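Need C-alpha cells for this chain, all 222 residues.
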Amino acid sequence: MTTERYQKVLTMLRKRQPDLTILAEDVHKPHNLSAMLRSCDAVGIAKVHATNPTGGIATFNETSASAEKWVQVQVHQTVEAAIMTLRGQAMQLFAAHFSERAFDYRDVDYSKPTCILFGNEKWGVTQKAAELADAHVIIPMLGMVPSLNVSVATAIILFEAQRQRRVAGLYDVPRFSEPELSEQAFCLLHPKEAKFYKAKGQPFPPLHEDGSIVRGTSESKR
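Here are the C-alpha cells for all 222 residues:
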C-alpha cells in the first residue's frame, strides 16, 4: 500500500452510492456474477445482494477483475428475505423482467434509492420475485435475439442509473460521513484486522497517510 493507492481508495469511496444496488437471484455461473460485480464497482455500488438455493453464491473468477475485493456481497437464503431487507432500507425494486407491465429501462427514476433485480440467464426472475417488485423494466431488442446475457443487461441498466445520478449531482458530494469513509477504508484495506476488532467490539485504529495501521494502545492489546 502506498499513499497514492490509499488516496485512490478514498476517492473511490467518496463516489460510492449506498442507496443503489442489485439483487442477483440464483445467478449460478461464476463468470456472470463476477462480471456483474465488475459493473457494480464501476458505477459506485458498495454492496450487492444475492440468493442461491444452496445458501451460497457462485465462485468468483477472473472476469471480475478483482471487483469482489471492493464490492461486498450479502447472501440471503430466499428472495423474500432479500427483498424484506431492501424494503427496510426504503429501496424501490425494479425487476429486469418481460411482462405486460414492463417499462423501457430508461423510463424509470434511478436517482431514488433503488435496487434492480436480475434472475439467472436460463430462467430469469422467478414469478415470486416478479410479483414482489414495484415495477418491471426491459431493454428493447430490435433484432432476432430476444434477450441479452444477464451480465450485459446489468451493465446497460446500471450505466443508465449512473447517468441519471450524475445529472442529479449524486456523485458530486460524498454520501458517507468522514468516520464512515475511514471505517470502510479500514475494512477494505485490512479485512482480517477489521474482523478481529469487530469480534472484540473495539473501534478501528486510525490509518497513516499510506493506509497502514497506526500502531498504538489498541493494537498492542491483540
